[in-house]
What does this fold into?
Amino acid sequence: MRSTASSHTLLADLGGTNVRFGLADPTAKDPLLHDSVRRYRVKDFGSLAEAIRQYHSDTGLTAKNAVIAAAGRISDGETVKITNNPWSIAAHKLADELKMDWVHLVNDFAAQSMAVILLKQDDLVPVGKLALPDIGAEAEETYCVVGPGTGLGVGGLLVRDRHCSVLQTEGGHAGFAAHSPEDIEILKYLNGKFGRVSNERLICGQGLVNLYDAICAIAGQKPDELQPEDITERANDSSDPLCVRTVETFAGIFGSVAGDLVLTLGAWNGVYLTGGLIPILLPWLERGHFRDRFEAKGRFRDIMEKVPTQAIMNPEPGLVGAAALAVVESGRPVLAERRS
It folds into this structure.
């Protein structure tokens, strides 16, 4: 297949480990062209431009415009240094290099936040007993999107009279707040190792390893040399009590972090959980530790009990969100497209 360059937008979802590409048709009700999606390893390429050329070569697909969702802070809408990989991107330079009309850089969790507008009901799994939100049903709504992968991303979606805008944040780097005696011991251990301890030190792939090491130290046992997937595998088959405890603790702390974000952003309408770890950890989130600590906000417990949390199971939420942003760039109302 070959795209019509004038009518499609190149999409990229760029994280610390992988970059995913696809095309969007901003005129379509489902704008992400799913058969255009490809994934590449960041370490295999020297730059984003090199990876895009490989995508063009592999698929025969081209476009004159691009929306790049990148895991890093966007400076002046023009440049980004990816937080967990060595690439730096300048929008105008990339457009010139690839002979594109324009390139729009956004934070990856700005895209993830826009994605929830286009997600279908079977893309979502409730965590807890509350029903899924109906986005756009009220005049004013605020949602939080948070997700552990290579790092911890945080974004916000604001819906005001059916107009959607996003908050681009680096909330994953906010400081970790201990809420229990075990949390305090974990914080002491990680503080000794890293100095300042952010939420990302605990809630991401490497965070599982950090938690495991801390829990072993608290138990007076020497940790094995494990990767995140080793910890979840041992927890799932119940072969290692310390790994079980690690994943249980991860779910609880994740709940505390998500609840704190609701209070910070005023995201009373709901929280969307996303990221590469969510499908793996979903059974542990559903067992109650996540919601228990999500709701444990003192005088705000009553309202927190009414805030729905849901896991995004769509495999490409970053590209779905970038496609939603391509619709916005085209001047079309993305929420109206979803609810028509």
Summary: The CA atoms of residues 114 and 321 lie 5 Å apart. The chain has twelve helices and 14 strands. The chain has a mean pLDDT of 92.
